[in-house]
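Action item from last meeting closed. Structure (229 res):
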């Protein structure tokens, strides 16, 4: 994926973050300040149009603002991630998990804490073919679930979660992995940030719509990886 020039990259990153925050199409008029660009409104509109032509943004309605495409999210994950300081949050999560519990119980408790922090679904896989998921109530709060198709899609994922996670155990190397859209084993409408600790005993994933806070999810998983090695 070739790099965009600085201005387009800054603008795309700002659109991705704003859409992740609001779930609404992003108007070009609101982007000058959010992207931190010292250019005219006309230049912003032209750059947004160029990003749309290149396939990184799309207009869901003729008169609406723009939203990121799958390619836009992938570009963001590859080149625009920020590193939020989530160490304190992860430390607090860890302190709620009782160390005397068996490994599986600790992971389930940690998953519940992570789902609460991220307001997304979280699953844990235990080899072979044993899974636990939590946070569905947070998922159903997302605007995407106003679509019957998306609800049906997520139901199908939950029905096949054991099979999908078992396959990932065979394929995924230790570390943090990000899956967006059509590359996502959980479905083309989703985003997933997956952690497989070096111990290999289990894996944990944040699962949500493609519009998710990848910065925070990846930051959380990297901190958890540090604790779980």
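Sequence:
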């Amino acid at each position: 994926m070739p790099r965009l020039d600085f201005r387009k990259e800054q603008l795309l990153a700002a659109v991705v973050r704003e859409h992740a925050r609001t779930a609404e199409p992003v108007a070009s008029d609101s982007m000058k300040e959010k992207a931190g660009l010292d250019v005219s409104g006309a230049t912003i509109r032209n750059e947004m149009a160029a990003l749309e032509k290149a396939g990184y943004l799309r207009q869901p309605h003729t008169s609406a603002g723009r939203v990121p495409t799958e390619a836009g999210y992938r570009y963001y994950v590859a080149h625009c991630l920020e590193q939020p300081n989530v160490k304190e949050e992860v430390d607090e999560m860890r302190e709620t998990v009782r160390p005397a519990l068996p490994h599986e119980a600790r992971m389930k408790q940690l998953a519940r804490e992570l789902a609460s922090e991220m307001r997304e679904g979280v699953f844990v896989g235990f080899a072979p073919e044993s899974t636990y998921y939590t946070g569905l109530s947070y998922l159903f709060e997302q605007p995407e679930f106003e679509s019957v198709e998306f609800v049906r899609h997520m139901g199908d994922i939950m029905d096949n979660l054991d099979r999908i996670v078992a396959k990932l155990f065979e394929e995924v190397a230790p570390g943090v992995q990000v899956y967006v859209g059509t590359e996502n084993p959980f479905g083309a409408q989703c985003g997933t940030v997956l952690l497989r600790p070096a111990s290999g005993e289990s894996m944990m994933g944040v699962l949500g719509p493609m519009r998710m806070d990848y910065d925070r999810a990846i930051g959380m998983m990297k901190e958890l990886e540090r604790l779980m090695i």
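Note appended to the action item: The chain has a mean pLDDT of 90.
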